[in-house]
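Forgive a beginner's question, but would it be possible to get a protein, spelled out as residues, together with the matching structure tokens, please?
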Amino acid sequence: MDAKIEETEDAAQVAADDDLAVREAAYEKFVWDNLKRNYIGNYLHGMLGMTGFRLVNAPTFLPAYLHAVSGSNAIVGLALALQQLGGVISPIVGATKIEHRTKVMPAAIWMGSLGRLAILGMALAGWFLTGQALVGALLFCMLMFGIFMGAQRVVFSLLMSKVIPISRRGRLQAWRNATGGAIAAVLAGVAGTYFIQPNLFGNGYSTTFLFAFVLTSFGLWALQLLLKEPAPPTVRAQARIRDRLKDFPALIAQDKAYGFFLVVQMLATSARIATPFYILYVGKVIGADGATLGLLSFAFLGADTASNLVWGYLGDKTGFRLVLVLSIIGWVAATLMLLNLHEPTWIFASFAVLGASLSGYMMASQTMILEFGNRDDLPMRIAVSATAESITATAGPLIGGVVAEVYGYDVVFMASLGFLAAALLILLSAVREPRRRLAG
């Protein structure tokens, strides 16, 4: 009797394995059959979306605007801290809402739309509010922007992992970031000279943010129209947020390289303590009118554009660990240049190197996270990384604002360099290229 039961169980297991293999093959076929359509959809979404988001996230317009309306370094730091605070919890919530679903596109549309409405709120606040009410509204919009962008990061990263094969992700990001960056660089120059300098429509910054809202919305609509999403062969069972939080230690412990990668992310994110103060430092040493803001934004976004093609193809060829190493080294170089070389040409160059380096860091960190562990844990792994980054990014700008106010910008920049040096040391000594580990 026992032998018959064992034979039945073995036969059932073989049948289940065969069925899973069939579903895996069908999933893989769907991905390749719809690759062109999904590639174009992701390209348009990334190109137009990143164009708008870069105008908001570039270390020029928003910090300068916040400083202009508040007159305080601490407020600039608080705004950036609130944005990151919004991203602390929302990735985990987003992951628990989608990891059991076979289709996640509806959640992507909701999260993406709400994030874009936060940008629209910044634009409208500038036109209809003044004084402390304007400062309060901008701080609130930054918090909301962080909340929805944190959740969106999980959803859209998962979508890309589902429809774009690993061998095509680097070049997709390269071309969408490059073309999006080219548009953003041109718009940055236009915004500084023709929107902000003459205070177009009564508030040049609001006009800039409205442009960002329109561009990012077009990108989301393109993705919604074009993307065809496959149902994965397996998904996790639905779980409560509290229960999934308990799984975090095991998720990290099962892959030591992933654990060290998280530390690298947190240290690099801590280094952003200095980023919003780059443009304020420039204003202190040489001055920063609207034309200068536009020129330095052009340098930052233009270098981002050109470097993306290098980062994307290099990542596809060698894996993204090398891209991460080179981008952190460039980040260090940019900070040192800004601290020590105060000629306009060198300041332009430092913003260009910073743009290229941050571009490489973002591409590498967001792509490498897709390559650790198994597919069913991917949403929560993305969420863990996003939350870990947001925790350090929340305190960084806030502390940086206070330190800059009390001790000056030099101390903030030196702290940033210390974080980057520690991140580079751990990356070189403890994190192997995940693609090589999988191949081995």
